[in-house]
Amino acid sequence: MTTPSQTVGPFFGYGLPYEGGSELVPGWRPDAIRVRGRVLDGAGEPVPDALVEIWQADGSGEIPRRPGGLVRAGHDFSGFGRCPTDAAGGYWFGTVKPGPVGEGAPYIAVLVFARGLLKPVFTRLYFPEDGAAHGTDPLLAEVPAERRATLIAEREGEREYRFDIHLQGERETVFLGF
């Protein structure tokens, strides 16, 4: 017997976030970057009770395979982070820019949990300075050219990127089906 899916409700805002969940590495590290953005609905309004989760490789492209990740000692890198959105739909992560995994461009896997969704939606965040690698990325090759920009973060300074996630509408972010 299969249990049916239920929409994600506001309960997760109390049970899933944890202290330091959005800081994969401390900001003092020389390779630290900041990824921030907003989760927006189809009308462009903020989603204040969403949860954004990221999974990524480290700076050399290695996928962390160690146990743990909830408690970080300032030098460990788990490749996993979780951040609830604020009243303006905003989220942020302190992390490192991942190296390429395999033949594709460097990316961060992004999951969004939000009210009204039966299951989280999955997308990827690519980096604007990796344009040459975008041309060889197998996943980006499958995305229509006019939609690829929804997967590429905007650079905002030397070590900061902005990646807004549009759940629906004209500017809807490309989401992946699994």
UniProtKB/TrEMBL annotation:
It comes from the Bacteria. One of its GO terms (molecular function) is protocatechuate 3,4-dioxygenase activity. Belongs to the intradiol ring-cleavage dioxygenase family. This is Protocatechuate 3,4-dioxygenase subunit alpha. Its EC number is 1.13.11.3. Residues 32-101 form the Intradiol ring-cleavage dioxygenases domain. It is an enzyme of class 1 (oxidoreductase). InterPro entries: Intradiol_dOase_C, Intradiol_dOase_core, Intradiol_RC_Dioxygenase, Protocat_dOase_a. Gene3D superfamilies: Aromatic compound dioxygenase. Keywords: Dioxygenase, Oxidoreductase.
